[in-house]
Amino acid sequence: MVRVMASGVFDILHTGHISYLEQARAMGDELVVVVACDNTVRKRKHEPITPEAMRARIIASLKAVDKAVIGNDGDMYRTIEEIRPDIIVLGYDQAFDENELRKELKKRNIAAEIRRAGECGDDLTGTRRIVERIIKGSGDSK
User: Fold this and answer.
1) What residues make up the domain containing 99?
2) E-strand spans in the chain?
3) Residue 89 CA to chain centroid, in angstroms?
4) What is the number of other CB atoms lying within 10 angstroms of the CB of residue 71?
5) Mean pLDDT, to the nearest integer, of 74-95?
6) Structure confidence by residue, pLDDT tens digits, 105-122
7) Are 6 and 31 in contact (CB under 8 A)?
8) 56, 51, 54: which is closest to 32 by C-alpha?
9) CA-to-CA distance for 78 and 113, rounded, in angstroms?
10) Interatomic CA distance for residues 66 and 60, integer angstroms
11) What are the backbone angles phi and psi of residue 33, rounded to the nearest 5°?
């Protein structure tokens, strides 16, 4: 059995997320998705719109996903050590240095292959773009 791991914030679910998770699922037999905890989202992106438990529940309900877990606050590699994936799939736009990731995995004796998902062709594939459109649209109703 090939265990695949994907990760993300998934704050406002959109077709880019669905594409990413479907691509990840197609790479193995089981897909475990790590949903970033609220503190990580605050540190790296923005104040979360949806709380971590709700985001994890939404992701767990998707057809492509076998299991969703909330990521570790601080050391993301602890979560990877717990899941022990055969393949880690990065989103096409996730800012991970693949070489650094491979080095750290090797140091921790995690023999996971790193792959990148392809880009989704839909117009609204980024949460920031969706939020921008909502904000722009909210001014038009006056």
Assistant:
1) 3-141
2) 3-8, 30-35, 67-70, 87-90, 113-116
3) 9
4) 23
5) 93
6) 999 999 999 999 998 766
7) yes
8) 56
9) 17
10) 7
11) -110, 130
Give the span between the Cα atoms of 56 and 36, in whole angstroms: 9
Name all contacts of 109-113 with Cβ < 8 Å and 24+ positions apart: 110/77, 110/80, 110/81, 110/84, 111/86, 112/5, 112/80, 112/84, 112/85, 112/86, 112/87, 112/88, 113/86, 113/87, 113/88
Q: Record the tokens describing residue 69, joined without a space.
A: 């877990």
Buried b (16+ CB within 10 A) or exposed e, 30-42: bbbbbbbbbebbe
The number of distinct structural domains making up the chain is 1
Which residue is associated with the tokens 């994936």?
Answer: 85
- Give which of 74, 76, 54, 53 is closest to 6, Cα–Cα: 76
Q: What CATH number should be reported for the domain holding residue 104?
A: 3.40.50.620
What's the rounded Cα separation, in Å, for the pair 84 and 69?
13
Question: What is the value of pTM for the model shown?
Answer: 0.86
In percent, how much of the chain has pLDDT > 90? 65
The pLDDT of residue 47: 87
Q: Which of 72, 79, 70 is nearest to 50 (CA)?
A: 70
**Helix, strand, coil percent values for the chain (each to nearest 5):** 40, 15, 40
